[in-house]
Design goal:
Length: 654
């Protein structure tokens, strides 16, 4: 149940070394920056005279260029896109900013014009292919485009209409002062090709009508002259020339792609680093000669960070404080630290919330109890092994899902061995099992013992949940909730009193139920008076803040809610036993149906379908029920999930 120990790292250093220091800190990927500057004014006054610089502040060439880093990044992305390269952040790069700028200049000088030409040629090729495709679809071979262009009193258009709009133009033939000729169809586009010739004085009228029909003009460039056949031939010649030019440009732009990728990655990483540094610089506090940076870092990384800073300068001072020294003024970010078995379950815990720094990490307790719940409710050697194997198969695509399935499958197999269940076949059909397991108290026919085991399991895990909640509250100095609250010590005594009352009524223990009823009443009264009792213990006045009547009305309703919640909590865990019975009963139904069949193939088919349904539908339901018990019955006792995620400043890796 570990949360990484954090310390506040306060750095004061000379401004002349600011860029170098920030570069090392970003590359270290260890600092959760904190720009709360309450104490920075004090640090500025204290260390201003200690840390000085001797250099005159001048705007160097590098500083001038850095102001245009966004433009440089855009230029790099244009070059990379033109070469079909996706820039990546890399760990190893040996370019400083000026070197990266020079490498970018080389790329631009050598390839920018060629990339631009290649783009233009590709656009031209696309246009020529479309022209060629449409010309191939025209079935009127006698058309002469040169003669059409030379008409003195008429204008013409070639264009495309969708099949739907063909009906509309037919309806308007008598209203159009033009000659409309259907000359072909482009089948793959589902569009018809028309030539429309009209007197020049009706140009505007014709254009308005065509626009209303979503007319798509088809323009044949003037350089293509002659009849349809001649134009086709000229377009094919132009396509051949363009293809040759594209091949020549491809050889220049796309050659040595791996080498270019490596250089572009290095330039890209440097530019992204500079942008990250600039972003941090805008948020720093500065004196005349110094700058101040505050960050949360893992305690174990303190020496590593100082070594990084010392490698570039000796003009710095570091002041560190533990989270305990800072107190409640600031909440440190949370880094969960769990072993390999528990690690995958952090994802499920964080769906509810991230533990705060001073909370107990619920991940180990969640992992153990969730796996136990799943195993109890879905115990089967064969079906558990299927989940285990699916988990192994998923590891490459999704490690979290794969690892969780492996663990759930393992617990399912373990409880399947205890129940004596293999793909639904129960104990009496598995002669290799020890005789002690056969027909024992946890046999599916013994309903009450299984249900009571579910309740006992619930009381146990809820007791641990109460203890965690009490410890969390007392850690924060919250006596009201930790001792007198519904999830505190008094709340736990009340919960156990309800359980022991039921146990006493059934004669399991030789104590009168009235003893526990009196304890229940006493604890309810204490919970109603939790605020005045807390203030009395702390020596605070008044004992009740606000209206007294309003307080007692609210407290009584809270007490009623506590009673109902305590009853619900214990009863909810009956479902653990109920689903264990349901698992056995569901397959039993398929087994009975299979035994009704005389055909061995049908028997096997029914059993296979039964196992598939149990693995998919019931497995999902059991998983959801386990989550429900964790989130609503257990987490509510001890887990707030209001932690701050640890976000170390670093370069984003694609």
């Amino acid at each position: 149940m570990a949360i990484e120990k954090m310390i506040m790292f306060n750095l004061v250093a000379a401004q002349e070394e600011e860029h170098k220091i920030l570069e090392q800190l970003v590359l270290s990927e260890k600092m959760h920056l904190n720009f709360d500057q309450d104490n920075n004014h004090y640090l500025t006054r204290q260390y201003e005279t200690m840390i000085t610089h001797n250099k005159i502040k001048t705007e160097t060439e590098e500083i001038k260029l850095l102001k245009n880093i966004d433009i440089l990044s855009e230029n790099l992305m244009d070059i990379a896109q033109g070469m079909d390269i996706n820039p990546q952040i890399i760990n190893d790069f040996n370019l400083n900013f000026l070197e990266a700028k020079k490498e970018l200049d080389k790329f631009q000088d050598k390839y920018k014009e060629n990339i631009y030409l290649l783009k233009r040629k590709l656009e031209l090729r696309k246009k020529l292919l479309f022209i060629s495709h449409v010309l191939e679809s025209i079935n009127k071979q006698h058309i002469n485009f040169t003669e059409l262009r030379d008409l003195e009193f008429f204008e013409y258009q070639i264009g495309l209409l969708s099949y739907e709009n063909r009906l509309q133009i037919k309806k308007n033939y008598e209203n159009i002062s033009a000659i409309v000729i259907h000359v072909g169809n482009v089948e793959d586009l589902k569009e018809a090709i028309y030539i429309i010739a009209y007197p020049k004085k009706f140009t505007n009228e014709t254009n308005q009508l065509l626009k209303s029909l979503n007319w798509q003009p088809f323009v044949i460039p003037d350089e293509f002259q002659g009849n349809l056949g001649q134009v086709k031939q000229e377009v094919d010649i132009a396509l051949t020339e363009v293809d040759k030019e594209i091949n020549d440009l491809d050889a220049i732009v796309y050659s040595d792609k791996e080498v270019k990728q490596a250089v572009i990655n290095a330039i890209f990483t440097r530019f992204e680093l500079e942008k990250k540094i600039q972003d941090i610089q805008t948020k720093l506090m500065r004196g005349d000669n110094i700058f101040i940076l505050n960050a949360w870092i893992p305690e174990k990384d303190k020496d590593f960070i100082e070594e990084k800073i010392a490698s570039v300068t000796d003009k710095y001072v570091v002041v560190t404080k533990t989270a305990e020294e800072i107190g409640t003024k600031e909440m440190p970010p949370t880094i969960l630290k769990n072993n390999r078995f528990f690690k995958p379950f952090e994802t499920i815990v964080q769906l509810y919330g991230l533990p705060s720094y001073n909370e107990i990490d619920p991940t180990p307790f969640f992992a153990i109890t969730f796996c136990l719940m799943f195993g109890i409710m879905f115990g089967d050697i064969g079906q558990g092994s299927v989940y285990f194997l699916i988990g192994i198969a998923l590891l490459k695509k999704n490690q979290v899902a794969g690892n969780i399935l492996m663990r759930l499958g393992g617990f399912s197999m373990a409880f399947g061995l205890f129940y004596g269940s293999l793909f639904g076949l129960e104990q009496h059909q598995l002669p290799w099992l020890p005789s002690a397991l056969k027909g024992g108290p946890l046999s599916p026919v013994n309903i009450m013992p299984i249900l009571m085991c579910g309740v006992a399991f619930g009381v146990t895990v809820l007791s641990v949940s109460y203890i965690f909640g009490i410890l969390n509250s007392l850690r924060h100095g919250d006596i009201e909730h930790g001792i007198f609250g519904s999830h505190g010590i008094i709340g736990y005594i009340f919960f156990m009193s309800i359980i022991l009352t039921g146990v006493s009524i059934f004669g399991v223990i030789p104590i009168s139920p009235w003893v526990f009823i009196l304890v229940m009443v006493a604890t309810i009264i204490i919970m109603i008076f939790k605020e005045p009792l807390t203030h009395l213990a702390q020596g605070k006045k008044p004992l009740i803040k606000g209206e007294v009547g309003e307080y007692f009305v609210e407290s009584c309703f809270e007490a009623l809610e506590t009673v109902l919640a305590a009853l619900s909590n214990a009863i909810s865990f009956i479902r653990v036993g109920a689903f264990a019975l349901n698992h056995a009963g569901l397959f039993l139904a398929f087994l009975v149906m299979s035994e009704m069949m005389n055909n061995i193939v049908l028997k096997m088919l029914i059993l296979v379908i039964g196992n598939v349904l149990i693995l998919t539908l019931e497995g999902l339901i059991v998983f959801i029920q386990g989550l429900r018990l964790q989130y609503y019955e257990m987490f509510s006792k001890y887990f707030s999930g209001e932690g701050i995620p640890y976000k170390a400043v670093k370069l984003s890796k694609n």
